[in-house]
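ping. complex inputs:
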Amino acid sequence: MESLTQTIQAVPLNHYILLSTIIFSIGVMGVLLRRNAIVIFMSVELMLNSVNLLLTAFSVYRGDAAGQVFVFFIMALAAAEVAVGLAIIVMIYRNTNSIDINVLNRLKW
Amino acid sequence: MSTFYFIAFLSIFFSILVISAKNPVHSILYLILTFFTFTIHYILMNAQFLAIVNFIVYMGAILVLFLYTLMLINLNKESEPVKPFMVKIAAVFGGGILAVALVSSLKSLGVSDPVVLKNPELGLVKNLGKVLFHEFLLPFEVSSVLLLSAMVGAVLLATKDPKEPKATI
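pong. complex structure:
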């Protein structure tokens, strides 16, 4: 494990921020591109995970364990969100026979 | 050092495949691979607790829940109509603009210190448990209430109400 952690010694913090930014933007693109509600949920998970990675990188950078505890709370929140969201999707499918989000455009008014 | 760049490339590659795969099942499988690369990132930062939790909770629980729901729903081929081409261009453009804005603000920040693990014990279960149960005890308990209410809400939403007639839309 000691030799493994030596490998990150030279990675600048900016590159972690860059990686998280790119993955967060890919998640935003997924939300905008797709119409399948489950794929949209997966894109939201992608965004949450990029933020998790960035929080961990900052935590290691500052030597503060609070960041990793925040990641733990975000994971608990994501589990709750996924359970409720998938239940809503199942209910929508039962009522409309589709998980296309454009079916729900009557919620606008 | 090059390990990080290789894994970062894999993360970006698989996350692009997640949003571009036509079949939602393939999309979920690519998302599992993406989360596996995230686990490797955590191991590289010696955040062992987060690596294990990411592996068990995300890859083991949440994505299985996704797959299970997808198979419960039994999608047809024609269930996802494609968006018009201009809307796709606009979506990619919007995401790209967001990335460019964030990266340019990062560039004006101008910090470039390397990430150095000062305390190798930082991400271990022993250290994180001490922090979690001393400083973050109240949020920990509140999150248990959150999980309980989410569980009750999910069961309440997903069960059929036998008394009500089936909604026709």
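Chain A has a mean pLDDT of 85.
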